[in-house]
Amino acid sequence: MKIGITCYPTYGGSGAIATELGIELARRGHEIHFISYAQPFKLPHFMERVFFHEVEMSRYPLFEHNNYSLSLAAMMHEVTLSHGLDLLHVHYAIPHATSAWIAKEMLGSSHPLRIVTTLHGTDITLVGQERSFGEITRFSILRSDGITAVSDYLKRETVDAFAVPEERIEVVPNFVDPKLYDRGKLPCHKQSFLRDGEKMVVHVSNFRPVKRVRDVVKIFSRMAKEVPSRLVLIGDGPDRPEAADEAARQGVTGRVLFLGKQDSVAELLACADLLLLPSSSESFGLVALEAMASGVPVVASNAGGLPEVIEDGVTGFLAPIGAVEEMAEAGASILADGKRWRKMSAEARRCAVEQYGVDVIIPQYERYYERILGRGAAPAHAEPVAHAASA
User: How far apart are the first and last CA of the chain?
Assistant: First the structure.
């Protein structure tokens, strides 16, 4: 198949998953064309059957504001014609699905292009539910020939918020490459962060309010009283100062390390002992899956799609949002009991490989593409869009 993929190229779960999907599909013999305003950060400089097409924005003075959506539609149209794409797989409903629909309308009946839209979370739970974006988000979703969501939770959110028929949405979860996150084959950097006998607790995020970074520090400060440990914070974002402030409040500034954005998170997870993820919402929880693939138990909130990824008491521990004491107690008990940690570590790795490994999930996408293209079961055709006041 010849597949166009559009995603946000910057750091973030959706862009990472979309890029890795394209790379894995290319390894399986498909021709992949990435279409975006910049090269995805996880895309190697060269790979067979992988191409990148940069969307150039017009500098015409009349367009005072960014016209990326229209420029993207024009590039999608151009790449489809010049390379004979079978389908466009876009990640995020707006503006990507909207641009794909425009490109398809431009092509008309001369080129029966199919559109698959993958919903990742923010496009549904935040942006799409803003009053000004509700109707166009729903329109763009329903005009897609195929719709996937990364979790059952996100599927339910989409059905409830946008009145999308439940049968239109296929759940295809996020995935992980077990070889990339094999802690036994990666160098350990513990000596760079820890003193002898200390445990390495990590948190990875974009430091937005939904990640509850103050809770991360509070949980760690209580754990550190029971188990010698240090907290390594990976990533950056608007609430990073909040984390630093809370560390000072808790008196653990000297035990908290800020590493900022890191390209090789796998190497850091390879020497971690526990991941803290007390978010108020996660559509899936990709970092939890990556940690599990690295054999790292996860202490997280029982919110969003996290219960679909983490098996409570087996691969980690789940607690209500804001239950700092409960999470701290669970984390300390895992770290203090070597036998329990080794069992949880092994179960976390097994779950990640057997349920979410690339060899499990990528074929699901391939089969879904075949259905949408009419080569397998009957494809799910786009339906007319009726006005929905609830959207």
Answer: 35
